[in-house]
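If it is no trouble, can you show me the amino acids of a protein and the tokens describing how it folds?
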Amino acid sequence: MYRLLRELHLYVGLFFSPFLSIYAISAVLFNHLWAPPPAEEQAKTVRIALETLPPDGESLAQARALMRQLHLSGEVEWIHRRGDRWTNIRVVRPHESLMIEVDAQNQEAIVRTIPEGARRVLLFYHRMPGPHLVKVRRNWFVVRAWGWIADATVYAILLMTTTGLLLWWLLKAERTAGLLALGLGVLTFGGLVIALLG
């Protein structure tokens, strides 16, 4: 039992360590606002003539059809429509964000590309796929896959916590020190909860 728990704890932890590192580093960036703003001064804008306008239908499906025609990929973050003109179709991917505007009258797309730095890439992975605009979220397969990994990482943390507690309990020599560490953790957590509720 001890050997099985030890190996499960060890190898699950090793497998998920890269993902935990991304979340840990990006959480520090979020908390301390160390991520620079988007590099607007490096943005590039191009106008592309459209062969055909996407057919009428649901907005996300139209945006996807437009992106296929423009040979673009990424997560559609939001879509705003205004009359016969689409404005602010925002597409994000780790290394850049895109603002796409479709002029139906002139049958052209205006694509503005804004590069993202390494720190903003980490923030992208931390917040994707977030709860904002739930009906639109996870429309790019990369973000869907990342969402599954994010869920699996949470389950792995719960598994490692459980196996860690069991391993500690099976090692009788470590019970006193373990009780002290566990007690300090519980007291710290309780103090924070009381402070937040007070």
In short: The mean pLDDT is 83. The beta strands are 44-49, 75-82, 85-93, 96-103, 108-115.
